[in-house]
Amino acid sequence: MKPIQSVLITGANAGLGREAARQLALRNGIEKIYLACRNPDKARAAKSALEAETGRRVFDTILMDVSDPNSVRQAVSRLSAPVDAVILNAGGTGGRTPNSLTASGVTNIFASNLLGHVVLVDELLERQLITSTVLYAGSEAARGIPKMGVAKPDMRSSSTDEYVAIADGSKFGPNADPLDVYGTIKLTGAMWMGSMARQHTHIRFVTMSPGGTTGTNGMDDLPFLKKVFFKYVGGTLMPIFGMMHDVQTGAKRYVDGLLNEKFESGHFYASREGSPTGPVIDQVEIDSAFANPDFQDNANLAVHRFVA
Question: Residue 65 falls within a domain, yes or no?
Answer without folding.
Answer: yes
